[in-house]
Amino acid sequence: MSTNEWPLWEVFIRSKQGLNHKHVGSLRAPDATLALENARDVYTRRSEGISIWVVESAHIHATDIDEADAFFEPSDTKIYRHPTFYEVPDGVKHM
Amino acid sequence: MTQAEKERRFQEKIDKEIKIEPNDWMPDEYRQTLVRQISQHAHSEIVGMLPEGNWITRAPNLRRKAVLLAKVQDEAGHGLYLYSAVETLGTSREQTIDDLHSGKAKYSSIFNYPALTWADIGAIGWLVDGAAIMNQVALCRTSYGPYARAMVKICKEESFHQRQGYESLMKLCSGTPQQKAMAQDAMNRFWWPALMMFGPSDAASTHSDQSIKWKIKRFTNDELRQSFVDATVEQAQILGLTIPDPNLKWNEERGHYDFSEINWDEFWQVVKGNGPCNKERLAARVKAKEEGMWVREAATAFAKKRAMKQSA
């Protein structure tokens, strides 16, 4: 038997209350309980977190890097979604 | 898209300082270079625990013992960040570790030297970690995203390693003549191996040019070695230790210290497996894997049992 049988887990850490969980890396562990304990030992030896999420890497679905241009095109072409698209007179305040 | 077109676009990204991420297209050789370099780096962290681990139970007091434990635990963590980074390149962790155990993969030659006295632990922290940091700070800007991110974390943690070593030597150097002599002896034995950590000279380095072009490396081996010498001379003076090199002197024209030629025969002997501790280090890693097998098996069995209970 080898560690190959252990799934890969992605580790997300909330560094403090009010901030979102952020991906910090990955590790291998036989189950979620040990993945959380290993994540604590590997990624939070210096108070980097107050909460950890682990997700089996196999459960993550991602966009295709080769299709990225087409996939994200709708947001690139709509410059009118940004406030700088609009002209307002110099005197107008609080806008 | 043709191969040439892909390669051109890849180099364009590198030139524009856009990081390469795991699923991006990359030339096979870029991938292979990274696997070789990152795994070598990971193995160095793991094998590096051995000379120091040997001193944990022999540390002179509780403070030094706690510090050494924390340091060795950090090295384990650093090895794990780096093994994860290798895995993002499509090489299995098992394979990476097996390549170390079969002797196919290398690790830093410095760890094939023994830590004979307590002063060696100080010298390892100051000189070996110091040299490693010089290398690693440069790698924080490496072109492969996961490697760069691992390096940033490692550098943050590593600076205490060097400081604790220096502090420990400071204590010895201000102690009895015997303690001072022990510190000088450690310096004498670790200085040259520390300089060898930067690898072969630029003229003899086979991978350097392409690695610089791909921005895997930002500085050449000789540039980093020079920065290390320049930074370390004054630190040695403050300790009152003599660097074991009669040719070490400031070169006003170059704005750097000159130093003697490294004994490259010794370097290649150690790289090829004939250093003082090569066999011992590898044997310890293989033994750890084999004798720790039952722990991994037990963990797997326990996880299965718990999963069954939960679904019942």
Key descriptive features of the protein:
heterodimer, A: 95 residues, alpha+beta, Ubiquitin-like (UB roll), three-stranded antiparallel sheet, 22% helix, elongated, B: mainly alpha, 13 helices, 68% helix
Largest interface: A-B, 23 and 28 residues
Largest sheet of chain A: 3 strands, antiparallel
Total helices of chain B: the number is 13
List low-pLDDT spans of chain A: none
Q: What value does the Rg of chain A take, in angstroms?
A: 21 Å
- Strand ordering within the main sheet of chain A: 2-1-3
Number of strands of chain A: 3
Main β-sheet of chain B, in a few words?
2 strands, antiparallel
CATH-derived architecture of chain A: Roll
Strand content of chain A: 15-25%
Task: Look up the CATH topology of chain A.
Answer: Ubiquitin-like (UB roll)
Helix and strand element order of chain B? HHHHHHHHHHEEHHH
The shape of chain A, in one word, is: elongated
Query: What is the percent of helical residues of chain A?
Result: 10-25%
Mean pLDDT rating of chain B: 95
Per CATH, the class of chain A reads: Alpha Beta
The spatial strand order of the largest sheet of chain B comes to: 1-2
Instruction: Kindly report the average pLDDT value of chain A.
Output: 91
Overview of this protein structure:
The complex is a heterodimer of chains A (95) and B (312). Chain A has one domain (8-81): Phenylacetic acid degradation B (Ubiquitin-like (UB roll), Roll), CATH 3.10.20. A 3-stranded antiparallel beta sheet of chain A has the order 2-1-3, covered by helices on one side. In chain A, a hairpin with a 7-residue loop joins strand 1 (8-14) and strand 2. Chain A is built from 2 helices and 3 strands, in the order ββαβα. Chain A is of the alpha+beta class. Chain A has helices spanning 32-43, 68-76; strands at 8-14, 22-28, 51-56. Chain B has 312 residues and is mainly alpha-helical. Helices cover 68% and strands 2% of the residues of chain B. Chain B contains 13 helices and 2 strands. Chain B has helices at 3-15, 28-47, 49-53, 62-87, 93-101, 118-139, 145-173, 177-196, 208-213, 221-239, 264-274, 278-291, 293-311; strands at 249-251, 256-258. In chain B, helix 6 (118-139) runs antiparallel to helix 7. The mean pLDDT of chain B is 95. The A-B interface holds A 1-6, 8, 25-28, 30-31, 33-34, 41-43, 45-46, 62, 65-66 and B 21, 23-25, 70, 73-74, 77, 80-81, 84, 87-88, 92-94, 149-150, 157, 293, 296-297, 299-300, 302-303, 306-307.
